[in-house]
């Protein structure tokens, strides 16, 4: 792990950087678990609405089956040095019942509208309850930047 030159950021900087990445990143790793089949992890496209992560997957996918049975999920942005981990509960919306603003934001970001595809899709909304963010070993202490759904003041 590269730590040379890494300067420990204050919490406010970590939050600012995390929010920026949630707006600009394309992919998130989604970790779910099924009570009978165990853990499952998959990358999905996502959009951030300022409060929640929105993803979309086939309604028949393992991810969709898992979050219907066990809504607790963990999300990770795809960088092992500039780590952002989110934890929350998934809320599911069939493609024809998703709020219009969420579906439009997803379509605008990716140029793809699952609502017009053949087959059924499921939009998954996760409001984070906990967010951890750190860059390298110097930032391991204090890595929890959101607790109980609240960013520190």
TrEMBL record:
GO CC term, one of those recorded: cytosol
Record's keyword terms, sorted: Oxidoreductase
Residue ranges of domain Pyridoxamine 5'-phosphate oxidase N-terminal in the record: 24-112
Domain of life: Bacteria
GO molecular function, one term: oxidoreductase activity, acting on the CH-CH group of donors
Name of the protein: Pyridoxamine 5'-phosphate oxidase N-terminal domain-containing protein
Biological classification of the source: Bacteria, Bacillati, Actinomycetota, Actinomycetes, Kitasatosporales
């Amino acid at each position: 792990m590269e730590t040379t030159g890494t300067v420990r950021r204050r919490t406010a900087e970590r939050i600012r950087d995390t929010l920026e990445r949630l707006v600009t990143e394309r992919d998130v790793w989604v970790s779910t678990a099924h009570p009978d089949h165990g853990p499952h992890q998959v990358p999905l496209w996502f959009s951030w609405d300022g409060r929640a992560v929105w993803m979309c997957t086939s309604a028949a996918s393992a991810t969709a089956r898992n979050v219907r049975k066990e809504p607790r999920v963990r999300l990770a942005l795809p960088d092992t040095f500039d780590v952002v981990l989110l934890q929350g509960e998934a809320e599911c919306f069939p493609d024809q019942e998703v709020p219009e603003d969420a579906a439009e934001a997803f379509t605008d970001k990716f140029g793809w509208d699952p609502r017009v595809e053949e087959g059924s899709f499921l939009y998954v909304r996760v409001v984070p309850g906990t967010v951890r963010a750190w860059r390298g070993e110097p930032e391991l202490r204090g890595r929890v930047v959101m607790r109980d759904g609240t960013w520190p003041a």
